Amino acid sequence: MSVERHIAGMLQQIARQQDIVEIAPQGSPSKAAALAHVAEQYGYTYGVAYRTGFKNSLVQVRMYRDPRHGARVREAATITAHPQAGNGGTVPGLGQGSLKPLPEAVGAVAVLKDLITFDVMAMYVADRRQKVMCYLACAVLTVLMLIDKSPVEALASGGLVALLLTVAFKVGVIRRAKIAQRLTAAGFLAVRDGRGGQRFLRPGQQVPGHANPFAA
């Protein structure tokens, strides 16, 4: 899908003043962050992000309509400044016809990218139960390989898979911790959602509910 169609589709949702706007560009969190920044200029706030679609190729971002007065003022100013957005006109914070942020929007988009990446990586940072299941799968694999291969080959193969999983778990934890440090430095607060997962919110914001963007 072209950049113009991505932007037009999102702005159509915004024009209907939906409580929730879904953004799903194919590709990296950078594209999703650029679109999320545009949505923020129309009075929405970041909710959550996760991967979906075939082979998890889509980064799905959920934006919530901010009911506060400041958000409505920001929306009105954006509509006035960019009357043809979505119809070939300028788009707030982005270069013409692209998802590349303008210099004044680079910092805000980078923060959104960190928020999105942190949430998306949650599915790759295994908890204790997931780790146990993965290592049990390695053990089962080793047993099955004993049928056709020598004990040395089977143990070596099973051990290699277990080692790769261990490294992947560790790398994910380290990378997510670095993102958490940047978000904390940017003024975001760490909280736990209803499932016990870690999230980062702006001061005064709550974990979004289904209808009320600021309900716990």
Strand content: 5-15%
Order of helices and strands: HEHEEHHHHEE
Low-confidence stretches: 210-216
Question: Order of strands across the biggest sheet?
Answer: 1-3-2
Which shape, going by the Cα principal axes? elongated
Counted by DSSP, the helix tally is 6
Q: Could you report the average pLDDT, rounded to the nearest whole number?
A: 82
Short description:
The protein has 216 residues and is an alpha+beta fold. Helices cover 50% and strands 13% of the residues.
Explain what you see:
The protein has helices at 3-15, 29-41, 69-81, 106-120, 128-145, 151-185; strands spanning 20-23, 44-52, 58-65, 189-192, 198-201. It has a three-stranded antiparallel beta sheet. Strands 4-5 form a two-stranded antiparallel sheet. The chain contains six helices and five strands, in the order H-E-H-E-E-H-H-H-H-E-E. The longest helix has 35 residues, at 151-185. Helix 2 (29-41) crosses helix 4 (106-120).
Characteristic terms for this protein:
single chain, about 220 residues, alpha+beta, three-stranded antiparallel beta sheet, two-stranded antiparallel ribbon, 5 strands, about 15% strand, disordered C terminus
